[in-house]
Amino acid sequence: MKFGTRIIHTGRTIDPVTGALSIPIYQTSTYRQESVDHFGKYDYARSDNPTREALEETIALLENGTRGFAFASGMAAISSTLLLFSPGDHLVVCEDVYGGTFRVLTQLFSRMGIESTFVDATDLDTIAAAFRPNTKGLYLETPSNPLLKITDLAGAARIARERGAITLVDNTFMTPYLQRPLDLGCDVVLHSGTKFLNGHSDVICGFAVVKDAELGKRIRFIQNAFGAILGPQDSWLVLRGLKTLRVRMEESQRSTVRIAQWLAEQARVTQVFYPGLPTHPGHEVNARQSAGPGAVLSFTLESVALTRRLLEGMKLAAFAVSLGGVESIISYPAKMSHAAMPAEERAVRGITDTLVRLSVGLEDADDLIAELDRLING
Ligand SMILES: *Cc1c(COP(=O)(O)O)cnc(C)c1O
């Protein structure tokens, strides 16, 4: 079945008890047991909750994995998964990784003896050169945030596998509708479900998905032991949001392609970063490994003054942190997603004071372009 059908009919879509089309919210912390000798499948809701399970099954199936795990935030999913590693382990990480991931790696996991080297992951030789005998993981985002750089996932995963390391991919920007890293040989898919998966800017959540059974067991152990699980109400909201993932992504992506083309023609726009543009250095690799360029782009403007005018003047896109909602969001990476990164690190990565990121929602593209035109050229 095609993705559009699977997204509606995949996993536990009907309540097995009543036949309800909407999985009930099992708002409980514990479950009564029948016998002293045999506890049921459900004993305590940190371990198992049917609403969360329905969501976990769905995300696993959509990513072509075998097990999915829902966490209280994207960072909870990422941090919990990083607990797969031990003191003395080394990680190779793409250099424009999400700011919160950079922070947790450099300020928390580094303290526990897990060291990270940040590399330009657009180049496979650079990735390979950063490997050490103790490198246990390769951590990637493609398209990356906020410069939409593209990594060849199959090529990178091969490098890691040959060296005995696992590949982890933050697939937040693409979602399984557009890109399925497990099919390309990667080992763990991570998500901030807060963004496109839920899609309505009303839940903070995260996911880890794997194909390998052993890896699944290890993450399951961490999820239950560490305890950063997603609650049943939020799980239900994400189940609902997911049903429209395909139509939301299609519509937003269509608008993003138009906006990127329009921005590229404006004299006051100095650079546009979007893998959907044929001029983007990662255009071909992205076209090969995914079903589309997604609904986030970034661009630089000719001055800081113009950048501020746009950020503060835009009405149809909220000036806010985050992305992937039905409403467009315009953000300022230097002071938002990457504020946790020291200024020198930002400069090295090209996250300048005139860089703006736009997550395109479901507004009419004509209206978005008209407003951009008024603020940039008016
Ligand atoms: C937002 C985001 C995260 C963090 O997710 P939270 O849900 O905010 O904890 C991680 N990676 C990427 C790419 C993100 O955009």
What can you tell me about this protein's structure?
- The structure is a single chain.
- The protein has 378 residues and is an alpha/beta fold.
- It has 2 domains: 240 residues, 3-Layer(aba) Sandwich (Aspartate Aminotransferase, domain 2), CATH 3.40.640.10; 133 residues, Aspartate Aminotransferase, domain 1.
- It is built from 14 helices and 12 strands.
- Helix 4 links the parallel strand 2 and strand 3.
- The model has no long low-confidence stretch (mean pLDDT 96).
- The structure holds pyridoxal-5'-phosphate (PLP).
- Pyridoxal-5'-phosphate (PLP) binds next to helix 3.
List keywords for this structure.
alpha/beta; Aspartate Aminotransferase, domain 1; 14 helices; globular; 2 domains; Aspartate Aminotransferase, domain 2; 12 strands; single chain; binds pyridoxal-5'-phosphate; 378 residues
Outline:
The protein is α/β, with parallel strands linked by helices and 378 residues long.
The CATH topology annotation of the largest domain reads as Aspartate Aminotransferase, domain 2
Radius of gyration: 21 Å
What distance lies between the first and last C-alpha atoms, to the nearest angstrom?
48 Å
| Helicity level | 25-40%
Task: Annotate the secondary structure layout.
Blueprint (H helix, E strand, L loop, with lengths): L2 H7 L40 H13 L4 E5 L2 H9 L7 E5 L4 H11 L5 E5 L4 H7 L4 E7 L11 H10 L3 E5 L4 H4 L9 E5 L13 E5 L2 H14 L5 H11 L2 H20 L4 E5 L9 H7 L6 E6 L2 H10 L3 E3 L8 E4 L11 H6 L6 E5 L5 H13 L1
Parallel strand pairs: 2-3, 2-4, 4-5, 5-6, 10-11
Antiparallel strand pairs: 1-7, 6-7, 8-9, 9-12, 11-12
Bound molecules: pyridoxal-5'-phosphate.
